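User: For my dataset I need records formatted as: sequence, then structure tokens, nothing else. Please produce one.
Assistant:
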Amino acid sequence: MFESLTQRLSNAFSFFKDKKEITPDNIDEALGQVRTALLEADVHFKVAREFTDRVKSRVLGAEKLAGVEPGQQFVHACHKELVDLMGPEGAELAFAKSGPTVILMAGLQGAGKTTTCGKLAKLLRERFKKRPLLVAADVKRPAAVDQLKVLGARLSLPVFHAAGLAAPEVCARGVEEAKKSGADVVILDTAGRLHVDEEMMAEVAEIARRCSPHAQLLVVDAMTGQDAVRSAQAFHERLQLTGVILTKLDGDARGGAALSIKQVTSRPILFVGTGEKLEDLDPFHPERMAGRILGMGDVVGLVETAASKISEDEARASYEKMVLGEFTLEDMLAQLRMIKRLGPMKKVLGMLPGVGSMVENLDVDDRKLVRMEALFTSMTPKERLHPELLDMSRRRRIARGSGQEVDAVNELLKGFKGMKQMMKEMNRLGLGAKLGADAKKQALREMSPTGELAAGSSGGGGLLGGLGALGSGLGSLGSGIGGLFGGGSKSQPSLEDLRSMMGGGPRPVGSSPQRRVESKKDKKARRKRGRR
């Protein structure tokens, strides 16, 4: 959602590229660009004005630090103010000390309130070990009750509804049912409207009076921009909200609501909906979101997502394959499936530092991953383990089996060779730089918590080590796996790039020397020194 804003802010930050210092004159021009970027992203004009004023005060009032460039100082100030704008950091849902926690969900029709009730129930059960009860109190919208019952059945969670009663009475009886059944969280799904009206507000206020909810959450469609802010103000005046849930944050709108709503309502954003699946609801972290808006990525969020979707054994096996150099098409298929589990590729790429501003220009098509998987599954297990067997007749058979052309098979094998070469380069720079096969296996056994190699590997680096290997797969998708990025760069990463990916930094003293490619200018200077 923030790709356009990220790009515009990056252009504003580049204003200080050739400046030696920040002055009251040049900062006004840069802040003018920032203000324009915020307004184009549909941020409330008062919020945009106050934000730029605070950034200016912070930058001009800060001490000048040695070695810190003006542009870096400006970005740092913007980051801090964005965190304050969307904060506070660490805002959480409060639970009742005794009895069931009652959560009232309010919002306009179409914001995704009923689906969010299911998402929240799933999150509370899995992360907080709660026993939720869903109460279907939206008696206005046709099929709203049935929709919540279907969600409850998918999640194996109870849904309470009493036909023929008004919404406040349904909610009151739902709370009583929770006390009898032992549920420790009650989620009330109330009715919405296409716009704010007195009847809806009176109904929600009556539900709040009768049920005394511990949390009153407003569900807001992040794609509605200023309308979201206005509706939030109206609800807050009648309900005294405790928090906000932003939905559809994965959309292609401008995202100004995320930056305005906390400032306008003074209530924190607690959760964000990032997709259509029931697991696509995440706690909101202002600092991480600010990093993504400024193009810094969200590595912590990516690691947390990977840790929840990829098992320790899978990550270890991936890492060991990389170190031992025993990479086959079977391993490539396993990595492809791990990458698919992380979620939509555009979302994953947006969490990588430096990629956020480019995602808007990338032609990322998740269906290509499905077509690639079809190619793999059209091969026999023996062919995946021994790619050298894939002659032209076998390639034609695989293409027919997957419903694709032979060129798709050739492109896949070309990508496999590129990934295997990358694995070798990373291995040469990392753990296996000077070790033989037996020594590598022994080193991996010593790193493993069980003292044994991971299942399925003839070679544990732990989850982070496995993610390092998985990162090589992500890094080569553009050039190696059929042009997922719409014909991305065909060049392989340099040794310095690979060393940076491995987190190794410069080589230590005494290690094997680095090969350095001399430019024509360097060669000319060296020869000139030799003549002297």
